[in-house]
Amino acid sequence: MNLHLPTLQDIEAAAQVVYREFQATPQYRWALLSQRLGADCWVKHENHTPVGAFKLRGGLTYFDQLKQRGELPRAVISATRGNHGQSIGWAARAHGVPCSIVVPQGNSLEKNAAMRALGVTLIEAGEDFQESREHAMRLAGQTGAHMVPSFHPDLLRGVSTYWWEFFKAVPQLDVVYVPIGQGSGACSAIAAKLALGHRAKIVGVVSAHATTYADSLAAGHVVPAQVSTLLADGMACRVADQAALDVLAPQLDHIVKVSDAEVAQAMRDLFTDTHNVAEGAGAASFAAAMQERHLLAGQCVGTTLSGGNVDASVFVKTL
Question: What is the DSSP letter of 183?
Answer without folding.
Answer: S
